[in-house]
Write the structure tokens for this entry.
Amino acid sequence: MDACSAIRYENDHSLSLHGQASMNSSLPVDSYASAATLPTAHDQRRMHVLAAARTCFARSGFHGASMQQICAEAQMSPGALYRYYPSKEAIIEAIAEEERIDAAACVAALHGEGSLVDRITAVGMEYLRQTLDPDTGGLMVEIWSESIRNTALGQRFHEIEAEVRRAFHAALLRAQEDGEIDPGIDIDVVLTVLFAIGDGLVMRLQIEDDADIETIEPYLRRVIKGLLGAP
Amino acid sequence: MDACSAIRYENDHSLSLHGQASMNSSLPVDSYASAATLPTAHDQRRMHVLAAARTCFARSGFHGASMQQICAEAQMSPGALYRYYPSKEAIIEAIAEEERIDAAACVAALHGEGSLVDRITAVGMEYLRQTLDPDTGGLMVEIWSESIRNTALGQRFHEIEAEVRRAFHAALLRAQEDGEIDPGIDIDVVLTVLFAIGDGLVMRLQIEDDADIETIEPYLRRVIKGLLGAP
């Protein structure tokens, strides 16, 4: 999963980010999103199904969760659910498509105002806030598990992350050229460490569910600053 | 899983660390380990079973893996295997006991020579080297998954980690008192971030299996230095 893919989750409910993503990025988005109109009842039902599916996948894994479980979680009959998604594979593909939209939002946030350390810290904190709920965090652990086992599903999510990583790479390279960060750092290694910190914090905040996420911000900033060699 | 529990894995094969752990820590160790003698054939067979079990748990999870699968992986008959461990629960308990020994080794390493940043970096790098193989890394993901779902098994491993965390807390407090690190940092939050970095790197190195682990050391040091506010 990309390093701030969960930013969409909250916006998914307020429906603001699909339009934003389509404005700020050249990444393809859902056909209904680019219209930037209010969602239809059909869109709302589809999002309801995806939310139920995420809950089931987080609980039982992509392989363990069944269409029956997703129906029960969504409180829909199989007939009703199949009108939106004909198979579990179609649901997973829709979740992957959401990830692509998240990736675009992440890239957009990285290109905002302020120092690179500030921007990466802000993207990171937003990522942590949005992955704090057990469904989202649990789903990410499942995606990592697929990535580690290098399944077709894992590769699908890995490609999405690669897009975010390319954007981070470009931002760091520019900051090196501008003298904003240490010109001697190996950007590839730094990104491996940076994405590891993101993954690790998401997981750790799931385990230590009494931790106050906002207390982390100054320490995340220190870590990023140290890693990038920013003054 | 504690932040350097995998240190044992390599030593498990060379059989050096059991004795070391019993010398350097007051944590209980296996009865055969404290004798610091060469392993008997029975010990070797038992370790062979545990290695096979780790492979199966990493592949299929603690719940998904069966005694039949462990027998097949160990190339032993059920009758032979049951002589060492009467149940899957007994195998898991033996793995947890190994984790306790790892925790002791981790605590011992933290109390070595050099600056705190150097010691934590060294412990961290050793942890990463030892978790690099897919069995160990995969098992850790399974343990995190149990911890997130807060199962009895997850709690068992969480207690072991808590012991390592207490040792880290004491080391950081002492370094604060000695003026070695920033006296203003909140040790609890710093440890949450530090353990997150460890978890995240273990997972990331499983996903990016072409990454050269040794290139990470200088960046891990920068991150720890920034986090602790060390000069």
About this structure: Confidence is low (pLDDT under 50) at residues 1-34 of chain A. Chain A touches chain B at residues 134, 137-138, 141, 144-145, 147-149, 158, 185-186, 189-190, 192-193, 195-201, 203-208, 211, 215-216, 219-220, 222-227, 229 (CB under 8 Å). Residues 3-228 of chain A form a domain with the Tetracycline Repressor; domain 2 fold (CATH 1.10.357.10). The CA atoms of residues 67 and 82 of chain A lie 9 Å apart.
